[in-house]
Specification:
Elements: H1 4-24, E1 28-32, E2 35-39, E3 46-49, H2 51-61, H3 66-76, H4 85-101, E4 125-130, E5 135-140, H5 143-153, E6 157-158, H6 165-169, E7 175-181, E8 187-191, E9 194-195, H7 202-217, E10 223-233, E11 238-242, H8 249-258, E12 262-272, E13 277-279, E14 285-288, H9 295-304, E15 314-317, E16 328-339, E17 346-350, H10 352-361, E18 365-366, H11 374-382, E19 385-390, H12 393-408
Helix pairs in contact: 1-4, 2-3, 3-4, 5-7, 8-9, 8-12, 10-11
């Protein structure tokens, strides 16, 4: 006897499969600890799933019918709690619906909040930044933003942006970005004609433009992702310090440099396509108002600081780089710091899934040129990651030096 509920569930799943087979073939999957990450290059959607989800995706891509997929999922159910064809079909439909809602099957970039368009007007402030790997031209009608970019990227500044015939002969043209005021307030940031985000503040615009500089100047052919963080060089590899703004990343990196580590990057961390190496991106290292009186920061400022900055309550240190821009540096560990005034030191090792989630939530994204999630997943799956809570700067510096030492043993 056939249960009509089974028939209806299978029919519903068949309907979903017909709509999703084509876009499902474009979804990338990568292992991540005991789970998997799914990524849609077209939309940018990122989803975590388990082995059941991977089996479902494999069945969809293989063009299996609903009954076969339901059987596939039923066979995976725990022996103590097996589920039948109706439940398997309902579970499959629910998973597919959640993926669809997350944008996993969308055929184009998910819309940005408060979308903007480029009015096409002339932007008087033009800045060129050059390395052996690439060259970025940034046009802006915001003079203060242009001055801030020079403070951060000054070591890459190109005075004659009209020059470069040798580059043109080699087919290596300028990558062009624009930041312009929008009608109604805010700014729009564009790479060519493509918006990088919706209506933005100056701070957001600066973040997006330097992210593009990280990709371009490190060689867009070797960048797999860009993380939000700072990085220093220990005796045998890089410590990545990842997290949201205000968590103490730059200050911790500066403390580690003063303690003898080498400076690799601040604010943007280009990850190599192999997921196992950082690409050095030395740029201005920000000193925020609350960190200026720290003894280690004062000592660095005496040697490498500036008296003033065009950015309110922020100064920049031009620290000696431990490696040239674009150089591959092996990764040793990842730290996610959080400063809590008066807190005791706490160091907690986290699993790859949590490390991946924290990296993405705090700004890590796949490269725009090499759109894949695997490099970021490989990094989180390969290297130890730690959550670091501290109440004093010296606590965090000592803890990170210990982590680097233990990773070398």
């Amino acid at each position: 006897m056939i249960d009509t509920r089974d028939v209806k569930s299978v029919q519903n799943l068949d309907r979903d499969l017909k709509m999703l087979r084509s876009p499902a073939r474009l979804v990338e999957s990568a292992g991540l600890g005991r789970r998997f990450v799914l990524f849609a290059p077209a939309s940018g959607a990122i989803v975590l799933t388990d082995r059941l989800g991977i089996e479902l995706l494999s069945g969809v891509v293989a063009c299996e019918d609903a009954k076969t997929i339901a059987s596939r999922l039923s066979n995976m159910s725990a022996a103590s709690e097996p589920f039948g064809s109706q439940e398997a079909s309902e579970i499959a439909s629910a998973i597919l619906a959640s993926w669809r809602d997350a944008g996993l099957f969308a055929k184009e970039q998910l819309p940005f909040p408060d979308a903007v368009t480029d009015h096409g007007g002339e932007a008087l402030n033009k800045r060129g930044y050059v390395s052996e790997f690439g060259r970025l031209l940034i046009e802006s009608d915001d003079l203060r933003l242009a001055e801030q970019l020079d403070e951060i990227l000054g070591q890459y500044a190109c005075e004659d942006i009209g020059a470069g015939q040798e580059w043109a002969k080699a087919g290596r043209e300028w990558v062009k970005a624009r930041c312009v005021y929008c009608e109604g307030g805010g700014r729009g940031v564009f790479l060519g004609d493509t918006p990088l985000w919706g209506r933005s503040t100056r701070d957001e615009a600066r973040y997006f433009l330097i992210r593009e500089a990280a990709e371009t100047l490190c060689g867009d052919g070797q960048v797999g992702a860009v993380l939000h963080g700072a990085a220093v060089l220990g005796s045998s590899g890089a410590l990545l310090i990842v997290g949201d703004s205000g968590r103490g990343k730059s200050t911790l990196a500066q403390g580690l440099v003063e303690a003898g580590c080498g400076f690799l990057a601040d604010d943007h961390l280009p990850l190599h396509l192999d997921g196992r190496h950082l690409l050095a991106f030395p740029a201005g290292s920000a000193v925020k108002h609350g960190a200026r009186e720290l003894s280690e920061v004062r000592r660095l400022a005496v040697r490498h600081g500036k008296l003033a900055s065009s950015r309110n309550r922020v100064n920049y240190l031009t620290l000696p780089p431990a490696a040239a821009v674009g150089a591959r540096v092996p990764i040793k560990a990842i730290v996610l710091p959080e400063f809590r005034a008066g807190s005791d030191l706490a160091v907690e090792k986290i699993d790859p899934e949590q490390a991946f989630t924290d990296c993405v939530v705090t700004g890590a994204r796949p490269s725009r040129r090499n759109t894949q999630i695997t490099p970021l997943a490989v990094m989180c799956d390969t290297f130890p990651a730690y959550r670091l809570i501290f109440g004093e700067s010296q606590q965090s510096v000592s803890a990170c030096l210990d982590l680097l030492s233990s990773c070398n043993s």
